[in-house]
Design goal:
heterodimer, A: 1% strand, B: 116 residues, Alpha-Beta Plaits, four-stranded antiparallel β-sheet, 3 helices
């Protein structure tokens, strides 16, 4: 971007749009701790903190890499495969409106940063309970730049998919398929947990899972509702569709659960909320509310099938990021190709409304995104594995990663604990029972 | 008739259950306990508070068996629970005075023998 257009649009900041985008950014940031809670509930209690910390670490790592290079590679210029280096270190990202929007460039960058953060955190779901924390930090740093920023450029930043007409409202390609298919690659490279397929490795707190899903849904209104970068029609449509699609996905999940096991499960419901939100992510601003409801009903089916099928395989893609994000993102991206409606989005029709070309553009994105995410993540982890072990030792895995990597326990009792060097006192060397 | 008490690592509890099952030992109770058996203490830090955790999570098996099954039970516990590191646990074999199966009122040998 040259200096001239910036100067020309210097007065183009809209206060209403900016106010909403500030709120939306905060909402999306909240999704990452919410995801931590969701994931933490799904693992065994001895890995609660490690699982949560992978998400928290994604905030620390991906925010910094985003500010240093990620944002620039994703959003500087219209290079076909990758952006430029003009915004490295946030150089030139200021109060002037971002080209094509009515919000300050700083707010645009911050909003996009929260996407990079949650996507990086999402991938951790594939490798919880056995990946070394240090190796994950290295992986997160490289992945957030080499995979996320590249896919974000393709889909949002003026790369070949965006230029070619592939529609992706809020990140079906970089966020959902990017994380989902990377998760599959990560699970294959890191390998399954020691006891996978042998012991019942069950969620230790279903309430965390439900609460996390609820908070994710709340945050998702910023995620989808903010992806129009304004308070205009597309944002309003995406916001409302974010209410409709997950509700329909939930209902479908209830029915599928009833057919399969004669009981409606709580963890299934939490999963359905995520699936519904993911389904509408790419399509939010492009399809009518009616089709958004249909997307919830229909899109839940393939995701449910993969969630039932995956644990019967040898692939320990532990928290089903592939099913809930990869497959749902894929479905949502394709759905645009069928049911996008120019009457609602002002951009393009889908096949159903007589524009078959849109379906081809969508199919291109639905294939290219996963292929790049899977391939690059696979290579990246193999390379990291040459320099440092990716996995905890068998003993550490058995002990739990909370004590191994964080020196803390989620449900510590303090029984028998001895204070080390209390201030102004002699060390108490007698174990103290504090049963209460 | 003996009561076999085995205190093992929680992560080995499933291996023990498997070994007991293979040895045809069926009646088992287990509970989570906190214990200390000479292993190194873990140091944990919560903000400014650093503590040595003197007690570790253990699982205690209690298995009442007839005399014929004592050795098989002890072997199964050893086989299932051993890692070779300090902290693998202990097995205690105690005399058992009486046993009653509540449902039928059977006593002693009948009470500790599984129903076929």
């Amino acid at each position: 971007m040259s200096l001239l257009p910036i100067a020309a649009s210097a007065t183009g900041v809209d206060s209403g749009d900016t106010a909403w985008m500030l709120v939306a950014t905060a909402l999306v940031l909240m999704m990452t701790p919410a995801l931590g809670l969701f994931y933490a509930g799904l693992v065994r209690s001895k890995n609660t903190l490690n699982t949560f910390m992978m998400c928290i670490a994604a905030i620390a790592i991906a925010m910094v890499t985003w500010a240093l290079v990620g944002y620039s590679l994703a959003f500087d210029g219209t290079g076909s495969l990758i952006g430029g280096l003009g915004y490295v270190g946030l150089h030139g990202v200021d109060f002037l409106p971002r080209e094509g929007t009515t919000i300050p460039h700083l707010v645009f960058m911050a909003f996009q940063a929260t996407f990079c953060i949650i996507t990086t955190a999402l991938v951790s779901g594939a490798v919880v309970e056995r990946m070394r924390f240090g190796a994950f930090l290295i992986f997160a740093a490289l992945w957030s730049v080499l995979v996320y920023a590249v896919l974000a450029h393709w889909a949002f930043g003026g790369g070949w998919l965006a230029n070619g007409g592939t529609l992706d409202f809020a990140g079906g390609i970089p966020v959902e398929m990017g994380s989902g298919f990377s998760a599959l690659a990560a699970a294959l490279v890191v390998g399954s947990r020691k006891d996978y397929g042998r012991l019942a490795l069950l969620p230790h707190n279903a309430v965390y899972v439900l609460l996390g899903a609820g908070m994710l849904w709340f945050g998702w209104f910023g995620f989808n509702g903010g992806s129009g970068f304004s308070t205009g029609g597309p944002s309003v449509l995406a916001f409302t569709n974010t209410l409709l699609t997950p509700a329909c996905a939930l209902l479908t999940w209830f029915v599928l659960d009833l057919i399969r096991g004669r009981k409606v499960t709580a963890i299934g419901a939490a999963t359905a909320i995520i699936v519904g939100c993911v389904l509408i992510t790419p399509a939010g601003g492009f399809i009518s509310p009616g089709w958004a409801m249909a997307l919830g009903f229909l899109g839940a089916l393939p995701c449910y099938a993969v969630i039932v099928w995956r644990p019967r395989t040898r692939v320990d893609e532990t928290l089903d990021v592939l099913a809930a994000h990869g497959i749902a993102g894929f479905t949502g991206i394709l759905f645009i190709g069928f049911f996008a409606s120019v009457a609602w989005n002002g951009v393009s029709d889908g096949l159903f409304y007589g524009n078959a070309a849109q379906l081809w553009d969508q199919a291109l994105g639905a294939l290219a995104g996963p292929a790049y995410a899977f391939g690059m993540t696979f290579v990246l982890l193999k390379l990291i594995g040459l320099f440092t072990p990716l996995r905890a030792s068998e003993h550490e895995e058995a002990l739990g990663l909370d004590t191994t990597y964080h020196g803390e326990e989620a449900y510590v009792t303090g029984e028998g604990a001895i204070l080390v060097a209390p201030p102004d006192g002699d060390e108490v060397e007698i174990p103290v029972a504090s049963v209460n | 008739m003996k009561m076999v008490v085995g205190i093992v690592r929680p992560e080995k509890a499933n291996d023990v259950l498997e070994a007991l099952y293979r040895a045809d030992v069926r009646g088992v109770s287990l509970s989570r306990v906190q214990g200390h058996g000479g292993e190194l203490e873990r140091v944990e830090t919560y903000r400014g508070t650093t503590v040595k955790m003197g007690l570790s999570e253990k699982v205690r098996f209690e298995i009442a068996v007839s005399d014929d099954f004592v050795q098989a039970t002890v072997d199964a516990l050893c086989e299932g629970a051993r890692t070779g590191e300090v902290g693998d646990g202990k097995i205690f074999v105690l005399d058992l005075d009486r046993a009653v199966r509540i449902r039928t009122g059977e006593t002693d040998h009948g009470a500790v023998t599984p129903v076929d």
